[in-house]
UniProtKB/TrEMBL annotation:
<dbReference type="InterPro" id="IPR036220">
    <property type="entry name" value="UDP-Glc/GDP-Man_DH_C_sf"/>
</dbReference>
<dbReference type="Pfam" id="PF00984">
    <property type="entry name" value="UDPG_MGDP_dh"/>
</dbReference>
<dbReference type="InterPro" id="IPR017476">
    <property type="entry name" value="UDP-Glc/GDP-Man"/>
</dbReference>
<dbReference type="Pfam" id="PF03720">
    <property type="entry name" value="UDPG_MGDP_dh_C"/>
</dbReference>
<dbReference type="InterPro" id="IPR014027">
    <property type="entry name" value="UDP-Glc/GDP-Man_DH_C"/>
</dbReference>
<dbReference type="InterPro" id="IPR036291">
    <property type="entry name" value="NAD(P)-bd_dom_sf"/>
</dbReference>
<dbReference type="InterPro" id="IPR008927">
    <property type="entry name" value="6-PGluconate_DH-like_C_sf"/>
</dbReference>
<dbReference type="InterPro" id="IPR014026">
    <property type="entry name" value="UDP-Glc/GDP-Man_DH_dimer"/>
</dbReference>
<comment type="similarity">
    <text>Belongs to the UDP-glucose/GDP-mannose dehydrogenase family.</text>
</comment>
<dbReference type="InterPro" id="IPR028356">
    <property type="entry name" value="UDPglc_DH_euk"/>
</dbReference>
<dbReference type="Pfam" id="PF03721">
    <property type="entry name" value="UDPG_MGDP_dh_N"/>
</dbReference>
<protein>
    <recommendedName>
        <fullName>UDP-glucose 6-dehydrogenase</fullName>
        <ecNumber>1.1.1.22</ecNumber>
    </recommendedName>
</protein>
<feature type="domain" description="UDP-glucose/GDP-mannose dehydrogenase C-terminal">
    <location>
        <begin position="331"/>
        <end position="457"/>
    </location>
</feature>
<comment type="pathway">
    <text>Nucleotide-sugar biosynthesis; UDP-alpha-D-glucuronate biosynthesis; UDP-alpha-D-glucuronate from UDP-alpha-D-glucose: step 1/1.</text>
</comment>
<dbReference type="InterPro" id="IPR001732">
    <property type="entry name" value="UDP-Glc/GDP-Man_DH_N"/>
</dbReference>
<keyword id="KW-0520">NAD</keyword>
<keyword id="KW-0560">Oxidoreductase</keyword>
Amino acid sequence: MVKKLKICCIGAGYVGGPTMAVIALKCPEIEVAVVDISVPRINAWNSEQLPIYEPGLDDVVKHCRGKNLFFSTEVEKHVCEADIVFVSVNTPTKTRGLGAGKAADLTYWESAARMIADVSKSSKIVVEKSTVPVKTAEAIEKILSHNSKGINFQILSNPEFLAEGTAIEDLFKPDRVLIGGRETPEGAKAVKTLKDVYAHWVPEDRIICTNLWSAELSKLAANAFLAQRISSVNAMSALCEATGADVTEVSHAVGKDTRIGSKFLNASVGFGGSCFQKDILNLVYICECNGLPEVAHYWKQVILMNDYQKTRFVNRVVASMFNTVANKKVAILGFAFKKDTGDTRETPAIDVCKGLLGDKAKLSIYDPQVSEDQIRKDLSMNKFDWDHPAHLQQPSSPTAIKKQLSVVWDAYEATKDAHAVCILTEWDEFRNLDYQKMFDNMQKPAFVFDGRNIVDAEKLRSIGFIVYSIGKPLDAWLKDMPAVA
């Protein structure tokens, strides 16, 4: 009788939960356990209300849960029993010490590795699922081999390439699955074991096998390239406004070149999400550590351009409204970093809201998927703290913003008596709002600052709005009130 393969994933977050759910669905003969030390998170995975919002995730989890998919806080038990252990813990940016503000903090990774070594009684394949710096596998190998008690561990790198909002679809039909391993007979055998899991539903030509370092670096490189495209088109958006060009037309023309393509060429208020900034800062640090300052400087510019875009947006809002937003109500439509997710990690909305609050604006925020608690927490948190456990997060100024901020559950409530509307997430419902109704209930002059280019600017101008769309020709009002970035 063939032994049933057991998989355990340490970390029940945005990566671990959906990935393991799909593996369980596609491989009914494999037992999959997702473990986490957070009792509330595991309880949520076992409830009707999952801890993360992702289209299609509910159906997958409910189909497999209790059959071959289990969510548990019994971390050591499931790690001990598993043949393959995925590690999907946080790798936040360090906030202090060597490499602070750039380097990845591997504290959680290291403690996971030490725990695996402690509790293991049989050979295991340990899979890096978190985004980690190049050569992390080498450090993990050292920890495991020095604490192995004669047990054989093989380390694989299997980075995720999921986009929030389409994660389940990305898992069902991935562009590629990347598996990096040691170029030894044992390493090759481990790679084949993991490859066979994915081969249940992924065509073989989409499963790419590389050495460990190529797999680790490919993840950082992919995110850096994608973020670079967004910063490139955002840089062009500033030039378009200055010259009267339309960034939508420019990006459409550029994207028609098959060597470039159209994806990730939408100008916006800036990129967000848990990966882009963190991974590029990590890449910058690795380049600096390897004596490559010019390469580090090149990638750092992608981050600087993203910061510039958010600052430019805030300055445009303030300048357009007679150079002050003090005591003026500004409606914020959208707080998540993109539509179809409740994720607010590194969302541009945080910096835009903080900028407006700093000028004493009164904000009324509406997002269909983000809770008031999350919004208030995000706006009171120090930079980089979001990726650390809750007990290590230090609020910066929770009382200062309390009076200036309200969170509502309706776009019309948010915009009632407001001087301006800022659209910061491209939720579909914001395209279809009754803007005439909104205009009638706002202070005049009424402004719309479209940070996602989703509204029909001419239609809104005909209603009476003064409209700013990123990278689009400026109307007379905006030309008369120039913003200095």
